[in-house]
Amino acid sequence: MHPPSISVTIKEPLVVDTGIDFGSYTVQKYSHDINVFGGFESANFTIADQPLDIEHWLHRGLGADVKVYSDALTSCWRGFVNQIKAQMGPLTITIGPLMDMANRVAVMYNGLENEEYPAISVGQVRTAEQNDTTSQGKYGILPKVLSASDCTEDEADGYAGTYLEKMKNPKVSQDWGSTKKGTPQLELSCLGYVHWLDFPYTDTDTGAQSSRQQIIDILAATPNIAWLVFNTSHVDPYSDNDIVATEQENDNQTGLSKIKSITPFGDSVYNRWLFGVYEDFKAYYYQAPTAVEYRQNLGDSSNRIYTPAGGLVYPWNIRPGKWIEYADILVGEAIPADLNNSMRFQFIESVKYTAPWGLQLKGGEVDTLAQRMAQFGLGGTS
Predict the structure, then answer these.
(1) DSSP of 149-180, one letter per residue?
(2) What's the pTM value of the predicted model, to 2 decimals?
(3) Strand, helix or coil at 131?
(4) Using alpha carbons only, how large is the chain's radius of gyration in Å?
(5) Please, how many CA atoms are within 13 Å of residue 376, restricted to the half-sphere of its CB?
(6) What is the pLDDT of residue 172?
(7) Where are the domains of the chain?
(8) Measured CA distances, 274 to 109, 258, 320 (Å)
(9) Rounded CA separation 156/279 (Å)
(10) Residue 207: helix, strand or coil by DSSP?
(11) C-alpha closest to that of 348 among 363, 358, 359
(12) What is the rounded CA–CA span in Å between residue 168 and residue 18?
């Protein structure tokens, strides 16, 4: 199995709804990142293939659905192909990134009424959306709202049309070098489906909502709802607490950035809450745990990680948003009620796995300061 103990399956983009498998490949240089905010973040790997199939990849592979499984058939990562780099002898062709494209475009501008001189400003105006349905049918709806300074409606519409024409198809670049040799191969850069939440989000209601309901509304507002439906059954109902925020959103913030601004509020007693999208498009919004879920002995030369009950956890199955205990340091120290108060414990903010056995865990502190400052309307300290 390549790489050892994980397998990768790739199918055509979900937007085209064919379910056609791209086939079996030898996967090399596999790695993935999972973050405490957002969940499945990115994955990168290389596959070797025949030239004819590489041409198929260049035409149909951008946006392809990628699933990564352990040998026990548990989900390790899922996302889509964001960029393809194909090497065929001396020629390298790069297509993408997909997320840089735009096939639905509007412009927010400071409107000018030009029927008289001098021109009179009419304030902030947003143009109607311009769409390229051919691009949308192949790649999904990729909306962008541009910003412009003083201009007329016709000028703003012209900006939108020009940008749409330029960005409706993926960027392609080519690089030829006489020293390049070797078997044809593809380098695939992938992103998690949480990145499809990076669409312009607007809500005209002026009332207040719980954090939970705002997140559910954003997940349901994706313009790609026809093929991408986020499962909200794990958006914890107990997050319907007395922490509420204004529902209205008309500042051209994206859905993803809106969720990122909601999560620091935590709950009414300043507990931290986490958000991420994982397997089967399941969106999780839940209180950060307070109990240890992983344990590791620094004296173990194999650097193995276990559950508190002693079960081995393979590196490709490690997730962020959990506590790990380094069990053989500060052994005589009493375990505090707040694990932040001991260097023996680490809260995992991000996980980077590199096949076959590489693992990097970055940690942080689960404190209440961020929640308190967010609820007071403060963004930081200086």
Answers:
(1) EEE-HHHHHHHHHHHHHHHSS--EEEEE-TT-
(2) 0.87
(3) strand
(4) 24
(5) 11
(6) 96
(7) 6-98+171-195, 102-167, 198-288, 292-345
(8) 35, 14, 10
(9) 41
(10) coil
(11) 363
(12) 22
CA distance 212 to 217: 9
Read off the tokens for 348.
Answer: 């995992």
With tokens 């650097």, the residue in question is 303
For 246, the token pair is 């204004």
Burial class (CB in 10 A: 0-12, 13-18, 19+), 133: exposed
Q: pLDDT value at position 190?
A: 98
Contact by Cβ (8 Å): 285, 264: no
Give Cα separations from 220 to 35, 38, 70, 111, 358 (angstroms): 22, 16, 30, 31, 37
Structure tokens at 85: 């780099």
CA 380 → CA 101, 251, 260, distances in Å? 33, 21, 15
**351 - beta bridge partners?**
34, 361
Give the DSSP H or E segment for 188. Answer: strand 185-192
- The gap from C-alpha 39 to its chain's centroid, in whole angstroms, comes to 7
Parts of the chain with a pLDDT under 70:
1-4, 24, 49-52, 112-123, 206, 238-251, 332, 334, 337, 365-382
CB 249 within 8 A of CB 201: yes
